[in-house]
Amino acid sequence: MAQTMFDKIWRAHEVSEGLIYIDLHLVHEVTSPQAFDGLRLADRTVRRPDRTLATADHNVPTDGTPTARLIADELSRKQVETLEANCEEFGIPLYSLGSDRRGIVHVIGPELGVTQPGMTIVCGDSHTSTHGAFGALAFGIGTSEVEHVLATQCLGQKRPKTMRINYSGALAEGVVAKDLILATIGRLGTGGMSGYAVEYAGETIEALTMENRMTICNMTIEAGGRAGMIAPDQTTFDYVEGRAAAPEGAEWEAALERWRALPSDEGASFDTEVEVDATSISPMVTWGTTPGMVTEVAAAVPDPAKMNSPADRESAERALAYMALEPNTPITEIALDRVFIGSCTNSRIEDLREAAATVEGRLVAASVRAMVVPGSEQVRAQAEREGLDEIFEAAGFEWRDAGCSMCLGMNPDILAEGERCASTSNRNFEGRQGKGGRTHLVSPKMAAAAAVEGHFVDIRDWS
Amino acid sequence: MEAVEVVEGPVSVLDRADVDTDQIIPKQFLKRVERTGFGEFLFYDWLRDGEIELEANPILVAGRNFGCGSSREHAPWALQDFGFDAIIAPSFADIFRSNCTKNGLLPIELSEAACAAIAAAGEARVELESQAVSWNGGEERFEIDPEIKHRLLNGLDEIAITLQADSEIDVFEAESEAPGPVTTALQA
Predict the structure, then answer these.
(1) Cβ of A81 under 8 Å from any chain B Cβ?
(2) Does the complex come out with an ipTM higher than 0.90?
(3) The pLDDT value given to residue B187
(4) CA–CA separation, A377 vs A383, rounded Å?
(5) pLDDT reported for residue B66
(6) Contact A120, A24 (CB under 8 A)
(7) Residues A434, A409: contact at Cβ < 8 Å?
(8) B contact test, residue of A40, A154, A427 with most B CBs within 10 A
């Protein structure tokens, strides 16, 4: 019987009904301390340290702080030092401050080649769906589940439903993966993928680079999806080949054979299928306080009075009050105080190249403070080899060390009350980037151009 | 985890859709390395700014897609520590729902109409065994995965249950585990 890619991976990992074997467990400092405590309390060990990898990312200052003990914030320091002690005690490999392999957990997995097709991957972080871009089944878990995986290398899971979203046609000039996923979330709604493992498919997706595919899978959770996946192909294999943890020689050939069998079979049936005409997608900008509150850059802030459902109207009114936006304001007239290029959604080398090409030879508007935060120390080093740091700094951007940075404000990079930010991150929730901060989610190109002009511009006709 | 059979009493109401876990427990409180003591930070900004009022009742009635966003288990820890033993909503975000059940906090999905009726009634009784919520003037059944229900009713440690199948995991690793990256072989 024809199987979906999800079915194939699920079945290959069922220890028993509903108990799934986990091939890779990624760990970071925020959602793991209580899990390690639980292990100690019950006198349990980590079953497979060799299938576990840790890094420090959420709390890390991006100012070049060289070791955990020099983190100024006491609680952040304690959390990172606790991670270091736990990894030492349980024998888990860790890239902490001072390592040139440290970075955002969803950036370093692919970069090191530990993220590979066909695997089951979990992490105590909702953006774990990122790794699905390689044709893996990857999803976020809570701390109790982190403890469960540490102890058993398995996870009790109810089988999700399957959805396939088929994209047809080429993206227009200036339109990128971020716009595609924002438009998709806008269409399906913040709960539209709840209960589903989602496969992104079609010619539009096949034409994308791995980094763009990761951006799409990353934001699956913003529509409530359990996992986002893209079938592995030559683009995937080329990306993985030669990386630190990638198989070599005969093992590489054997892996390729396994991976080539992963894509959904012809005629495989999904619980839901959605068709999207990718040619009609525009550069997108969020206007509200969920990623689903999003519109085209050429449009205006919506008018709640014109919304049909009272619940939608009420949510939109509350969001606009928080965002300090008037209905019907053209998006391109929204002025900005801050620009943030970074996060597990858009901080990879290609994102930085796109942003750098956009600002090269220009200057950040006087009214804007702009920063670029590479997703990992390796991305930072690569960007510096290419001279991207010089382009950004010449334009007036701050060039920082790797970390989650201003995506979630658990470190010194935050918005002040009332500040408005164009951000390449994934969440525009109230207070996400700092209490009272106002976030607009956009692509790296759109953020870079907005930094120069001091307000949003339609990247398609900006020069 | 303590066993849960019945939750009953007054309800608090938070009639908003898409309440995300960043609101339930803002990021500055995720730096603690303990599981306890999160209740005083529940809905920190909203409560402090007078956006909402919330009494520490046994039951919270919330809007659709409750608990969306970040996977932080600190959200159910905070709700439970504040005093809630059950949350009733038209729908929940997947990870949040799962996190709740790991801690004995009941996520109960009911129709929009039932949620509104319970909010109006001001009191309710949740019975896990019969999978029913009753209130003055109505009753509605809810769905729950049978294994999760069994675990909640008996207050079972899920890791201990899985470890009982230790030999099955051994067999899987010996026979079915695919070759994959060895993280301990990576250079430091």
Answers:
(1) no
(2) yes
(3) 85
(4) 10
(5) 98
(6) yes
(7) yes
(8) A154
